[in-house]
Every structure is written in structure tokens, then in C-alpha cells.
Amino acid sequence: MLNLEYMWDLLPVLLSYLPLTLEMATIAMLFALVLACLLAVIRVSRVPLLNGLSLLFISFFRGTPLLVQLFLFYYGLPQLVEALVSINGVTAAVLGLTLHFSAYMAESIRAAIVGIDRSQTEAALSIGMTQSQLMRRIILPQATRVATPTLMNYFIDMIKATSLAFTLGVTELMGATQKEASSSFLYLEAFLLVAIIYWVVVELLSWGQRRLEVYLNKAYQR
Amino acid sequence: MISLEAVTKRFGKQNVFSDIDLQLERGEIIVIIGPSGTGKSTLLRCINFLERPESGRITVGDLRVDAQHATRADILKLRRRTAFVFQNYGLFANKTALQNISEGMIVVDKMPKEKAHARAREILKRIGLADKSDAYPAALSGGQQQRIGIGRAMAANADVILFDEPTSSLDPQWVEEVLNLMKQLAAEQQTMIIVTHEMQFARDVADRVVFMDEGQIIEQAPPDELFTAPKDPRTQRFLRKILAPTGQTVP
What we know:
Distance between the termini of chain B: 34 Å
Domain ABC transmembrane type-1 (chain A): 18-206
Largest sheet of chain B: 6 strands, mixed
GO molecular function (chain A): L-cystine transmembrane transporter activity
Structural class of chain A: mainly alpha
Family (chain A): Belongs to the binding-protein-dependent transport system permease family. HisMQ subfamily.
CATH superfamily of chain B: P-loop containing nucleotide triphosphate hydrolases
Number of strands of chain B: 10
Order of helices and strands of chain B: EEEHEEHEHHHEHEHEEHH
Shape of chain B: globular
CATH superfamily of the domain at 19-170 in chain A: MetI-like
Number of strands of chain A: 0
CATH class of the domain at 19-170 in chain A: Mainly Alpha
Organism (chain A): Vreelandella nanhaiensis
Transmembrane segments (chain A): 20-41, 53-77, 83-101, 184-202
Distance between the termini of chain A: 55 Å
Largest interface: A-B, 24 and 28 residues
Number of helices of chain B: 9
Oligomer: heterodimer
CATH architecture of chain B: 3-Layer(aba) Sandwich
Strand order of the largest sheet of chain B: 6-7-8-3-9-10
CATH class of chain B: Alpha Beta
Helix content of chain B: 25-40%
């Protein structure tokens, strides 16, 4: 039935592409986090003009498929901007993932900020803290804890979404599998194996997530 | 030393109060009483601009702030001279007891961390919670949390501490320890303005009791006078209603 020997031989080949996949996801996640925090703070503080722009940004990147966005950046934009002709697939994928996921993450971070009870804000202001001190020292650390499970979910989603980069010609985990499968014709074995690799990576992350949550919850034990 | 002149606050078109005047001296303790919804808490919150008054002047020591022209810097200065104790404590949930008390000293007063922590430890000792310095608010009882709220206000080294119904959301068993701490502060001549429904406490501690009703100061007098011989019919009616269940009588 299954050609196990082939799968065993394929495993190290595919694993050698895992670092690129993780690298793309990690870099995109870091950029997305920064951007999402910015968007969330703009939304919460209702910064004039920027608030409207943030809404438009979030609306667009949540309202269109990731694949469409990736194609727009990789195939579409170079038509408009000369300098982007040489944009490579990895950069385009990281850019697309960053913008797409930051839109989602901004909304969860905003919800986490709004969820922190108002009395702490008033207490911080009453002792003479400025808005930015309040944000940095009181609100964001607590919002981080509330938003962490959701943000980790987005990270998991992002790892899986890097597989779309193969449509931009990037030979990452999925792209490599596709190539191997079409030369061996053992599609079931190849794609089953890559599915297992993604699955194990996600499971490891979920384990890490639980540990992280225990750590972040230490201030809230009764 | 602290004075409010013609302070007016509106919510939308609704006047909460207008032209409120109130003066107090250093070391004086004022208790504000009155029916719910008469603007007592709002008045207190206006003193440090948690609510921005529409007009009026607030003076604390040599700092004079005109509500109509108050800049952000004025408001920060005013807040550094006043400290606030909240009904719901408002402790920072991500900080330990010690950090809750030292936070303002570090961030606002720019005190070195070591010094701020040493000072916070002294305060913890004074409020009887030296053993709880590393506990987070979630692990503390309501009474302990409120005492830390008071400790945080003490740390601000403010000219006046404003108490907004500090015992109203406490379980009955925790009320006394909080009131005792406030009495201790009173004995140390800490200037305070206290909004409360604890009449016995008002009697014991206040230098002056202020009765507010429908956005106005109706009457103010030392507690002996106000509780035993209230002049205004509205004060009499309020005291009769609130003291009846306790068995005390009002002439």
C-alpha cells in the first residue's frame, strides 16, 4: 500500500526545507506583531486620520484572500513600481503574510486592551502617569497575556500559510514536496509525509503555548 | 491650602453641579456625605481631573489650575499633588503589592528603583502588609487590596488624598481594617477628602462634614454640630433616614 521506505528516505530531504518555512513564519510574525500593536493602539486611542487609515487597512486585508494578496504583491505590484521587479518570492510571501495577519492580530490586541478594566487606567492617571507610560507599563503587559492564546493561534495559522509561498515559486516545505512528488509519482506518500511534518511542528508549538500561558498567568493565581 | 472656586461640571447638557466652593487647610480632614447621585464622587474626581470640570479654579498649595485653560502639563502637575483611592481599588493586576506602591515613585517621580522599593517596603510595614510584598492583587483579600490602594496613594507624597467610597465594595468583614488604616492616617494629620457612607467613621474622624444634595453643598460643620443639630431640612431628612436603622436619633 504505502511505500514506507520511500517516505523514510524523503523525510530528511523535506526536513531540510523546514528551516526556511519556520524562518518565513517567524519573521512575518515579528513584523506582524509590531504592526498589529501599532494598529491596535491607534484604534484604541482613536488617533485622528490614522484611525481611519487603520480601519481601511484592516478591512482590506481581512476582506480579501491571502492568496490574492500574495499574487498582488508578487505579480501585480512590480507592474506599478519599477523597483519591485526584482522582488523575490520569499520577500513577497513574508510581506503578504505580515500585512494579512497583522490585520487580524490588531483586532485581537485591540479587544485585549479594551478588556482591561477601566479602574487601572484611572489609577495610573491619578498618580500622574502619562498616556504612553500607562500603555507601556500597565495596559500592554496585561493585554499580552489576554491576547497570547489567540496570537499563538495566528502563528500556527501563519506556519501553515507559508505553504502558499510555493505558488510564488519558493521552494519551501510545500514546494519541495510538490517537486519530489511529481518526479516519483508517489503523491500519497509525499503529501502524507508533509502533512505529518506540519502537524508535529504545530503540536510542538501548542505544547510551548501551554507552558507560556502558565508563565504569563503567574500573577493571576488565587 | 486647597481650594475649589466655582467648580462646575456638566455631563452633556445635564449639570452635575455648578459653582461649588470648598476650602480646606493642611492637615484637615473633610468627609462628604449625601444621597447617591448627588455628585460627591464626581466632585472628588474633578479635583484631579479624572473628570474635567467645565469651569472653575482648583488650587493646591501654590499650584492654581483654571479648568477652562488647563494644559496637559497643568493636569499632570495637579495629579502629582493629589492622590486618589478608588472604590474598586484599581490595583495594577500585573504588579505585585510592592510594585503597585513603588510604580508611581519610579515612573512619575523618577526615583531610583532601589530607593523606591525601600520606601514601598516602609509603607507596606505601615499598612500592616509587610509579608505580602510579593503577592499579586488577585491573591489578596478585598481589605488587603484596598490597603495597598491606600499605600499607593501614600507613596505619591501628595498634598491631599482623595477617597472615593473606599469601603463601599468591600465585604463587611474587611471594612474595619480599612477604616482603621484611614484613622491611622488621620492621626498623622494627613490632609484628606473622603466620600463615604460610613457615618460613625465620619463622626470619629472628620474635622468637618460636608452635606451635598442635588449638586449643591447644603451645609458644612464639624461632625458634632452637623450630626446633632443639622440646620437645613434636607440634611435633617437625610440623616434621619440613614441613622434610623443604627438606632441613633437626630433631633
